[in-house]
Each structure stands twice: as C-alpha cells, then as structure tokens.
Design a protein that fits this description.
Elements: H1 20-29, E1 33-35, E2 47-49, H2 51-70, E3 75-77, H3 87-91, H4 94-97, E4 99-104, E5 111-113, H5 119-124, E6 138-141, E7 144-148, E8 156-160, H6 166-178, E9 185-194, E10 209-219, H7 224-240, E11 249-253, E12 265-273, E13 276-287, H8 289-298, E14 304-305, E15 312-313, E16 316-323, H9 324-335, E17 336-339, E18 349-352, E19 363-367, H10 373-386, E20 392-394, H11 400-410, E21 414-418, H12 420-425, E22 427-432, E23 438-442, H13 446-454
Parallel strand pairs: 3-9, 19-20, 19-21
Antiparallel strand pairs: 1-2, 4-5, 4-6, 7-8, 9-10, 10-16, 11-12, 12-13, 13-16, 14-15, 17-18, 21-22, 22-23
Helix pairs in contact: 2-9
The structure holds glycyl-adenosine-5'-phosphate.
Glycyl-adenosine-5'-phosphate binds near residues 207, 282, 323 and 325.
C-alpha cells in the first residue's frame, strides 16, 4: 500500500493568495494560536497553541507518523531529548558553522539577513526598504545556550538542539542493536528545535522555538541516488495530498553556495503563498557526514557490517526534514477562503477548506432548537456517541445558519442537525462544509459514514 492510495481528492480551484493578517486574526479569534507571554508584551518568534490549534497540530503530527512510520516496514520511530551532551554540537558542525550574516540599515534601522537580500541590494549595499546604506555584515551563531547543573563553576554549558535530527544519529546504533532492522532502513522523529533566529517573523514561518519532523534513511553508498530520488518524490506527493492548490508546490535545487555544511546536495519542497515561494521541507544528501563525525568525536565506531557480505562501511544518509509549524501555517494559508454571498449562503462566509483528516473538529451536532427537550436529548445522545470516535462539538447557541458558519470558519467538515423529522423517523441532516450539500442519514449509520470520511485509510 502506498500513502496516496484511496485518498479523497480535494478541489484544485484557484483562489487569490491569502493575506497572512487574515490567518493571524482567525487564529487568535478562534483559539488556534496565541502570542507567547502576551500579558508581558510577548516574545518575538515564540507562540502558544490554543484548543483548536492543538487539535490541528496533533492531527498533522499523527498523519505524518502514520504515513512515514506506520506504513513503511523499514522505518522505526524514536523520541529524543532536547538537551544533549555539548560535544554533539561540536561534532555536528553547528558550533562552528550554524551562523547567519546580518546587516543593518543605517537609515531606517531595519535588519536583514545577507542571504535574504536581493542581489541588486547586496551589490549596491542598499536597504531594500528605504534605499539607505547598509552596515558591514556581522556573523551570529544561532544555537541557544543553556546550562546543566546548579553549582557555579561546575555547571556545564550546552545547547537546546538546533536541529532535532541529531538524536537520530546518537541513537542509530542503539536502534540497530535493539531491533532486527537492517540497511536500508530509516529512523523518524518529531521534536522541538530551537534557533536564535536573527530575523524571526511572518507569524509561524520563522520562529525561535519550533517543531521539526525528520526521516534519516541509512543506505549503502551505492544506493544513495536511488533512495534520494525515492524519498524526494514520496515527500512531494505527501504534501500534494494535503493541500488544495497543487500548483503552489514545487522543488527548488540548492545552489552550491547555499548548501548547509552537512549537505552535498539539497532540494527544497517549496510552497507559494503571500510570502512568495518559500521552503516547506528540505531533502538533504547528508552522505556520511553525521555518522563519520560522531564516530570521530565520540571514539565509538558507528560503521555497519553487512550481515551477508560482511562488508563494513559508514552508512550514507538521505534526510527529509520539515516543520510542524510551517505545515500548520501553510495549511491555513492554503485552506482559508472568504466566500461572497451566494444562492446557498445569503451572508457569505469564511471557510477553512482543510482536509477532513486534518480538521481540528470533525463533526458538530446541532439541535434545530434549544428549547425543545426532545431535540436536545436526541442531539446530546448523538454527540455523546460520536465524541468517543472523533473530536466533536455540541452547539445550540444562535440560529442554525450562524452555527454552520461558525463551524465553516474552523474547518469542521460535517454538521449533523437534529430536527423534527428526526423525532419521527430517526434520521438526521448531514451538511458537508465545502459544497454545503445536505443528505439525510439514519442515526445508526452516522458513525460508520463519518469515520469513513474523516479518518485516514
Ligand atoms: N535537519 C535539517 C534541518 O534542520 P532546515 O532546512 O534548517 O534543515 C528543516 O529545517 C525544516 O524545519 C524547514 O524546512 C522548516 O519547515 C522548519 N524550520 C526551520 N527553521 C524554522 C524556523 N525558524 N521556524 C519554523 N520552522 C522552521
């Protein structure tokens, strides 16, 4: 079975690029994302996730895990710690190489990353915003420092991990010895990473604390190209399967000058939003960089012996590395739509056309009127049954049209309405979010119908 089999197809209809402010406002208003420490004025590049945000995040994580770990027999999962021995970051090259070069505008005081400046501004040493003169570049390391221990003088300086994947190299030998897996195989992990980004911004796009998902796939050097191509395509299809605007996805090969210190070649999967074409996930040819460096710095031999040929070698690594937060943001930018009034909806509506698998709430149960006891009792009964299977909401406040719009705005794919006919024949109205079409179903058919539509298969 492949990850794309049996997938519900989504609309590819083109719509204008959504201003990020609209998504930021929706996130705050409906409880997806809040600025961190807001009552103290906030911290730039750090966010908290609210009740709907945490459901969406969990669904995004679970779908990635399902299609990477559960569906692939040659992949195992781990969960490593955020703090490691400081030598890890010397071996990985981050202490020396994980830097950004910055310039400031002498006139408007805006700060720019040198690698983000348009070529013309770089050549003329001019600020892209006001045309003012730029300062000489200064170099900053992005690693966040912390300390282990309490006694002054005995405390050990280390780092919050700058890329989550390092734990996978540290645990590679343990995974190999504690399971019966053999090369080629992969290890997956989802976890937080921390970077002192010098220009955090664009909401969740560039943060200082964020979450990454990584596959590190270990191969014989002679099979590197084959597996690199395989995972590159697999990951592209994965993203294509969860967005509406398939034409806003593309690959971009890295120039040799922009390659990270660990990569011999790299492709970004990019998504086009109001921010332009931007990286969503990186596919990196890490080769033997990581295991060789950790062998050298730790003194532990991390080479692999082929059980059949007895050949001994350092495995090469294909990395696919993306972000939970960037996926969260891109999905909202992709799904958000403001629909003008139409025949079906006289007032117009804001709708989040999220894939039903990822939507934070799967179904809302609505009694037509809240002052009719029989309607309320039946609706409560349906809600109590459905919430054991999926995230459901019960809503009896305001007229039915307004309640539909409230659910559309948070991306709920189905609303179930209990009306007077329900009391006669035990059927309900099931209203679907995107086309606003309605069907009638027996109450007993509801669980099976909804599970089929909203759970990945
Ligand atoms: N282990 C390889 C690595 O860390 P990366 O391209 O620096 O590669 C991988 O990061 C992914 O992590 C990016 O494609 C992006 O989705 C996410 N990411 C990186 N920096 C981020 C930041 N400051 N805020 C949010 N997401 C970020």
């Amino acid at each position: 079975m492949t990850q794309t089999e049996d997938r519900t197809s989504l609309s590819t209809e083109d719509t204008p690029l959504v201003p990020i402010e609209k998504v930021v406002a929706l996130c705050k208003r409906r409880g997806f994302v809040y600025p961190n420490s807001e009552i103290y004025g906030g911290v730039s590049g750090i966010y908290d996730f609210g009740p709907l945000g945490v459901e969406l995040r969990n669904n995004i994580r679970r779908y990635w895990w399902w299609s990477m770990v559960q569906l692939n027999d040659n992949i195992l999962g781990i969960e490593g710690s955020i703090i490691t021995h400081p030598r890890v970051w010397e071996a990985s090259g981050h202490v020396e190489n994980f830097v950004d070069r910055l310039v400031d505008c002498k006139n408007c005081k805006r700060r720019w990353r040198v690698d983000h400046l348009p070529a013309e501004n770089l050549e003329q040493n001019k600020c892209p915003f006001c045309g003012g003169e730029l300062t000489e570049p200064r170099t900053f390391n992005l690693m966040m420092e912390t300390y282990i221990g309490v006694v002054e003088g005995e405390r050990m300086k280390t780092y919050l991990r700058g890329e989550a994947c390092q734990n996978i190299y540290l645990d590679y030998d343990n995974v190999l010895k504690s399971s019966r897996i053999q090369i080629p195989f992969g290890i997956c992990q989802i976890g937080k990473a921390f970077r002192n980004e010098v220009t955090p911004g664009n909401f969740l796009f560039r943060q200082r604390e964020f979450e990454q998902w990584d596959l590190q796939f270990f191969v014989h050097p002679s099979e590197m190209q084959k597996w690199f191509d395989y995972w590159k395509e697999y990951r592209f299809e994965w993203y294509k399967g969860i967005i509406n605007h398939k034409d806003r996805l593309r690959f971009r090969a890295h120039e040799s000058t922009e390659l990270a210190h660990y990569a011999k070649q790299a492709f970004d999967i990019e998504y086009k939003s109001i921010l332009g074409w931007q990286e969503w996930e990186g596919i990196h040819w890490r080769q033997d960089w990581d295991l060789s460096r950790h062998s050298l710095y730790s003194g532990q031999d991390l080479s692999y012996t082929d059980p059949e040929t007895k050949e001994r070698y350092i495995p090469w690594i294909v990395e696919t590395s993306g972000g939970v937060d960037r996926t969260f943001l891109n999905l909202l930018l992709d799904a958000y739509e403001e629909e003008p009034p139409s025949g079906k909806d006289k007032e117009g509506r804001t709708v989040l056309r999220l894939h039903p698998w990822l939507a934070p709430v799967k179904v809302a149960v609505l009694p037509l009127q809240k002052n009719k006891e029989e309607l309320v009792t039946t609706a409560r009964g349906i809600y109590n049954r459905l919430k054991r299977l999926m995230v459901a909401q019960y809503d009896d406040v305001a007229n039915i049209g307004r309640r539909y719009r409230r659910q559309d705005e948070i991306g709920t794919p189905f609303c179930v309405t209990v009306d007077f006919q329900t009391l006669e024949d035990q059927t309900v109205t099931v209203r679907e979010r995107d086309g606003m079409t309605q069907i009638r179903l027996d109450i007993d058919e509801l669980p099976g119908y909804l599970v089929e539509k909203v759970m990945w298969r």
